[in-house]
């Protein structure tokens, strides 16, 4: 997952044994597992929210073409006006 090799894992275990009381290691591992599980649940929730948001965007983009305003069609007739000044 993080690219640890066997030597890094063994070194990490030795450091943990030296720094933490051996009786406290099971409680430490449980706590690390709970934190990891909590983080993974949060990440899955974020992924689901992004997937839902992406689906809503796709749904919004796939309107029927009749409902979308077509800029090529003129929505109303314009009166022809002259740009020349009218003399009174």
Describe this structure in words.
This protein has 88 residues and is an all-alpha fold. It has a domain of 47 residues. It is 58% helix and 0% strand. The longest helix has 37 residues. The N and C termini lie far apart (85 Å). 0% of the residues are buried. The mean pLDDT is 78. It is found in: Membrane. Keywords: Membrane, Protein transport, Translocation, Transmembrane, Transmembrane helix, Transport. This is Twin-arginine translocase subunit TatB.
Helix content: 55-70%
The succession of helices and strands, N to C, reads HH
Beginning-to-end CA distance, first to last residue: 85 Å
Please indicate the percent range of residues in DSSP E strands (runs of 2 or more): under 5%
Rg over CA atoms, rounded to whole Å, is: 33 Å
Q: Characterize the largest beta sheet: strand count, sense, and whether it forms a barrel.
A: none
Low-confidence stretches: none
Query: What is the strand tally?
Result: 0
Number of helices: 2
Q: What average pLDDT do the residues reach?
A: 78
Derived from helix and strand composition plus strand pairing, the structural class reads: mainly alpha
Tell me, briefly, the overall form: rod-shaped
